[in-house]
Amino acid sequence: MQVAPSILSADFGRLNEEIKAICDGGCDLVHVDVMDGHFVPNLTIGPVVVNAVAKISTKPLDIHLMVENNTFFVELFAPLKPKYISFHIEEEKHPHRLIQKIRSYGISPALVLNPHTPPQSIEYLLEDVDMVLLMSVNPGFGGQKFIPSVIEKAKILKKLINEKNPNCLIEVDGGVGSSNIHLLKEAGVDVVVAGNYVFTNDSYKDAIKSLQI
Question: Does domain 2-211 bear CATH number 3.20.20.70?
Answer without folding.
Answer: yes
